[in-house]
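@channel anyone free to eyeball this complex?
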Amino acid sequence: MISEASSFTPQTIASPLTQLLWLIPALPIAASGIIALLKQPRRKLASTLAIGSLSISLLLSLWAFAHVLAGWANHLAVRETYNFTWIQVGSAYVDLGWILDPLAAVMLVMVSLVGLLIFIYSVGYMAHDENYTRFFCFLSLFAGAMLGVVISNSILLLFMNWELVGLTSYLLIGFWYAKPTAAAAAKKAFITTRFGDVFFFLGMVWLFAQTGTLLFYNYGAGSLEGLALNNLLAQHAAFGITVAGAIGLLIFCGAAGKSGQLPLHVWLPDAMEGPTPVSALIHAATMVAAGVYLIARVYPLMSAGMPLIGHPGVTALNGALAVVTWVGALTAVFAALIAIAQNDIKRILAYSTVSQLGYMMAGLGLGGVAVGMFHLITHAFFKALLFLGAGSVIHGCCDQQDIRRMGGLRADMPLTFATYAIGMLALCGFPLVFSGFWSKDGILEAAHSGAIQGPYYLLVFGALLTAFYMMRQVSYVFFGYWRGHHPAHESPRVMTMPMAVLAFFAIALGVIGTPAWPWFRSFLNGQPAHFDFHGFAEPGLLSLMVMSSFVVLFGLWLGWKIYGNKSPSPEEPDALEKAAPALWCGLRDRLYVDEFYGITVIAFYYWWARVTDFFDRRVWGGVVAAVAWLFQLWARFNNFFDDSWINGGFDKSCEEFSTGGGLLSRVENGRVQIYLRILAAGMVVLVAILFWMVRP
Amino acid sequence: MNYYDLFRATLPETVLECAALLVLIIDLAALRNAALKTRATVAAILGVIGCGVALWAASIAPSFSAGHDLLLAAGGSAGVAQCGVLVLTALTLLLLIDTEFTRNPGEYVAVALMSATGGLFISAAQDLLVIFIGLELLSLGLYILTAFAKKSGRSAEAAIKYYLFGGMSAAFLLFGFSYLYGLSESTWLPRVVLGTYFSAARGGWPLLAIALIAIAVGLGFKVAAVPFHLWAPDTYEGAPAPAAAFIASVSKVASFALLISISYVAMHWAESLYAAGYLGPGYVTIKSYPPGTPVPRVTPGIVTAWPFIVMVLSVASMVVGNLAALAQISVRRLLAYSAIAHAGYVLLGLAFFSRTNVSAEAVLFYILTYGLTTIGAFGVVGVVERTSGSDKLDAFLGLHKRNPALAAVLLVLFLSLAGIPPLAGFWAKFNLFSAVLGRSYSFPISSPPTVPLVLVALAIAFSAVSLYYYLQVLKRAYVMPATDESPIRVHPLTMVVIIAIGIAVLVLGVFPGLLQNWIASFYPGF
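replying in thread with the prediction:
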């Protein structure tokens, strides 16, 4: 049991640094704007601008992090906000603002650091692409928007950046838009996430209607602070859920869309059609984690009314967090099952990402912000590493993505293999050395001490599957013998160096989250951290660690037993397919979720579109055409009246003047006389109307 | 108000007059043999500096306390409109630099500055005589500016029409003022309004109605409200582009500021009297009659008639302006009818005016952003016209290939005029219509309370109609195939002005609070 020290004194006054916090997202967005104006051949300048601006953002983020850290060292729970009124309509205010607290600071450093490494990697990966400039424009815009999501203190500002992130995701998935699959994947990603966003938007509007503010924290008047929360808890929406819970669930729908949770996960594997750096940055490390971050940000709302939030042992599953937990745990297992039967190197990682996001959600639901966020941070590093490794493999194998056509790459690409192995072991949660072990262990521990054991068993099973499918992938790719056509080659320095840095973090980050020194959790929760080996002595913890280690090792052993050094030919059926063909086909076809949507939702929309199209063309079209025709007639009449009639009158009078030989006919002032007549007539009409309408 | 106070209060006007004279002197004395471009640049820059100094003078003007002999108001709508007039004047002067319609740029600038002086006066005027003299000062300048392209027959034609129409309207206005003076025995606006209540109750109502309508003719001419709008299309079409921009922006801002003053005073008294029990629903009820006079118990007062007249003008302007604009093929005439339509929207805000600052602030926001947008639009039209020799719709074909920046600004400005978010025009309409609907009481009360709602719905429907003719221009600029793809070269300063206006419209659309807060800061109690 973690010793619960008294919480730190809150520190809320905005420092000058906080007032400058907007620069962190603004710089990459500005860079993106400048790159957008550059001509296509200015490649060097484009990447320099993008990397330069993000480097400055990283420095600012580190500064902000150091600021929060210094506050923390002085026993201050830093939560600095800077708010301002954006629009005022009558007495209603739309406020925006940004926030600096441990949660935002940690995310800032993670996003800008991983982003910067991937930017550098992209210089090598995209070197041969003719749209290099456009790529960095989008990437830079994405980084800015994502950093904007992180620092938002207003749910509206967060939503705006959230949508911007979705837009750049769409643009980057469809980066090779000439490829029909990429264009379709981009559309699918955008529409699916938008579906969740609609509910997020409803939740936002409801929150605004209930609390009258869009700010999260505003010196006691924000929507996540006690007064508003109590108000939200006091009201009941429906089915025994409080308004707080209902709003929380609506917001969770948006998070589920972005973070690929069941049943909105279908877009994420398809999103792998984008360039690999994009998959690494957006669809593994940052954007998909935005959903998790959103839940962490509105955690007071989600957990409102629960006793002793995030306290192991007493976690009561109720309201919104129960839904979050179950959805997360189910997603974790569901996606891990599908990952077993995939043959595309990036698709396996994509399903693995979905599965890990499920872990994070479950961690948030069961163990509080710190548990979920710790897995988010460690996952960001090792999954970015894995994707960059996969990109390096794809690059080295001449754009081959099928793992059955690879093999034996450990000899050809030693650096890639070494870093990939680190990432893979971290993802599996290999005991003690790797960060993934500690973060996953935190989630399992929280699940084990929860009131209901269902999620716990699901998550343990998921861990077994994770080790298994990763071992299968590594065996196919790096062991056995080479089955491709062209010989593979190692990638350039500019690509391997960022991988090495990420590999370092994939190991090193574990240090800050061990039970002996739960620094990360204390930092986020605003408590002092102590180094104390007695952290391991907590009842059940050691046995749990041994058990999870065993599960991981068993999964790895099983994978090696079935796939290690076998190198079956690409045409040969998979080892598991021979054993259970029906199950294998189901998993290979992604459990038919897409097909199910195809015959239900999409079929319905096709039908509905036909009906509305008929109405639009036949019924409304006719009405609109009739109205338009009437208006045209009226406009013509007006014009006729204003121009032609008066013109005609003028011409007539001109003729009269001409025939009369009048001097004035040469100047065109006959027209004015009619104007003046109309003026006088107008006055008379006005007088008549006035006397008729307003009578004493 | 003693002479020193008067001097302090009229410091901006004085500065502007001095600047006008300085421009004339320098142009005649120092630059006699200089090239036309140099003279135009120097004159325009001097004029802009004059506006800047006047702006500074306006900002340091003391706020004097209200007295019964107050000729000019300070703060409130007067302050906002004066700043607006000065800034917009400076912008229109900058458009002069790249034009060639006149050989006498110095005189042009001087006349424009004097005209702007008139605008400053009527923005702040609180006295019938000051109003009339200010209006004449403004209008006479405008007639001259319209005629400034001496080689162009259309310019002269437009000017003579404008002048005749303006002279007639001024006559009506003075006629109305004389009646008002007769009814109230005062020329001071608050006293006039108050006096008319009591004289109307004593049987002066028919005279009051005639007077108000005569005044509506005079002011309706200034803001180009239907049916007093007939000069506008011809003038907008014939006048040189900077002069047209000046008429469309500066003159409009000043005239609407005057209307705000009148509405404000009328509402102020109406509500005071209403609170004191003198006023029934829209009618004056005199409780204590002078003994022996046969007075009706209730009689319509200014607060019934004036909003009603304005309402009629507003509806007529919205309908005729928008519909007639649909059929135009000349962009200048299109802008003229669009100006009539916009005047209709603003008049709606003035008809349903509230004594609280909400209405005044909404109207000010509208006319300032509208003035800014329309200057930019005339800037673009002027550039296109110089290149292709015509302001027909087809002159804009392929603009985005010929000069992408110009086309982009045109897109922003026209969409803003149509009221598309997130541009300034959207917030202008939004604020104005919400001010109309947001009034808790309604004058004229004799009309049912659904009237504002119906009229706002009408206005919104017509702004949807207006999108059609704005998009007609944009369609030619962006979509339809170009006949001529030679690039359009623009004087760098003109380009800077046009782009700055485009950016300002965009920024004010994204952060409307900037302008709203600035306007609100002129009102006491901010």
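from a first look: Residues 124 and 494 of chain A are 6 Å apart (CA to CA).
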